[in-house]
Amino acid sequence: MGAAGCPTTEIAAKLGISTDTIYNRCIDDNGVTFSAFLQEKRASGEASIRLKQHQMALKGDGNLQMLIHLGKYRLGQIESKIETDNAPPQEKLLVLEDENIKLKARIKELENVQTQS
To answer: In 11, 23, 84, 113, which residue has its Cα 20 to 30 A from 42's Cα atom?
Structure first.
């Protein structure tokens, strides 16, 4: 539940115990505070999400939405306002497809850098 990002109160409620019991048992059973234990579990959950996002983005032709998301949050890219707001949908699609190609190329560049280091 910690990996899913659940807060302590929800974990306690699901287990049918008090938050005090969670805190005390974690120290007794794991030798660490529950805060430290929960932080580790959440980090593991976040890593799993990032890995799945990366896999989805690179699968086949790539998941366009996931490529955009990764580009924004990992590469610091921003969406450029399509200057043709009144343009037909087909023209907007061409702009998005071009962005998709650029994102895929950037991801491949980063993968190559990562494998070389």
So the answer is: 113
Residues 6+ apart with CB under 8 A from 26: 32, 33, 34, 37
| 5/45 Cα distance (integer angstroms) | 8
Residue 87: the pLDDT is 66
* Cβ within 8 Å of residue 39, ≥6 positions away: none
For tokens 């794991």, what's the residue? Answer: 30
Residue 103 near residue 63, CB atoms below 8 Å: no
Asked if 68 and 103 touch (Cβ cutoff 8 Å), the reply is yes
Which residues does 113 contact at the CB level (< 8 Å), separation at least 6? none
- Which candidate, 54, 91, 48, places its Cα nearest to that of 69? 54
Which residue type is seen at 48?
Answer: S
8 A C-beta contact, residue 2 and residue 45: yes
**Is pTM, for the whole model, over 0.85?**
no
